[in-house]
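Researcher: Let's do a round of design. I'm pasting the structure tokens now; please hold your answer until I've finished.
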């Protein structure tokens, strides 16, 4: 499967970080004509399960299943097969699970899609979470080298394993693009429009800056979903991106 992102609208993925189905449905319905994707993550999926995916698809939305699979190769590949059967467009797994885990998942997803006549979801590798900074990486996780070097190393590992792209913070977009080339799909969280609070994200950037740096898809939550008018908030971000072209 190949994504064609021809407009700023298609580059926006709204994070449905809520815990009830009705709120998720209302957001998806109000935003389905304004954005390209909806992220279903741990909070919503744990609360309501696959019904969240169905709710997004019912309004014509594309799903990014953000469960960051990280386990032994057999477990992750089976989980990814289940996600493929649900019809998600994007799903992710931790690159720190290693090459075997990623390669087996790539193979299992491709085979399942082929056998069942499904559209193969795009697989994204999680590099370093945007809540982490160099001090945490060094002092707590004992990762040698710089944060940027570690992100690039994991991104290259993901692409060699056959993944379609990576999740990377705004500050590593350019480095990942240079290291992995134009075919690497870069999905970027940690996006905050000008004037918005950073909350628990440490490595952030505005939407326009991220697109200009080379990001393909921007994951945005509270600046849109926390607005009194989410559709208008999404449109303002799209205008900001468009003006940068």
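Researcher: That's everything. Go ahead.
Model: Designed sequence:
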């Amino acid at each position: 499967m190949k994504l064609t992102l021809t407009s700023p609208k298609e580059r926006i993925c709204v994070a449905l970080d809520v815990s009830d189905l009705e709120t998720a449905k209302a957001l998806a319905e109000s935003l389905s004509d304004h954005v390209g994707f909806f992220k279903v993550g741990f909070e919503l999926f744990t609360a309501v399960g696959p019904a969240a995916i169905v709710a997004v698809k019912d309004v014509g939305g594309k799903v990014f299943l953000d469960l960051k699979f990280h386990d032994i190769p057999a477990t992750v590949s089976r989980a990814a097969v289940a996600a493929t059967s649900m019809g998600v467009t994007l799903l992710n797994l931790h690159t720190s699970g290693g090459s075997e885990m990623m390669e087996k998942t790539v193979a299992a997803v491709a085979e399942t899609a082929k056998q069942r006549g499904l559209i193969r979801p795009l697989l994204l590798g999680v590099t370093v979470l945007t809540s982490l900074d160099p001090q945490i990486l060094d002092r707590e996780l004992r990762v040698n080298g710089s944060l940027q070097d570690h992100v690039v190393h994991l991104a290259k590992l993901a692409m060699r394993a056959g993944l379609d792209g990576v999740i990377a913070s705004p500050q590593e977009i350019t480095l990942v693009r240079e290291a992995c080339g134009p075919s690497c799909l870069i999905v970027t969280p940690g996006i905050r429009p000008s004037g918005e609070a950073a909350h628990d994200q440490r490595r952030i950037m505005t939407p326009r800056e991220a697109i200009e740096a080379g990001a393909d898809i921007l994951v945005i939550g509270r600046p849109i979903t926390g607005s009194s008018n989410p559709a208008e908030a999404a449109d303002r971000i799209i205008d900001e991106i468009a003006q940068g072209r």
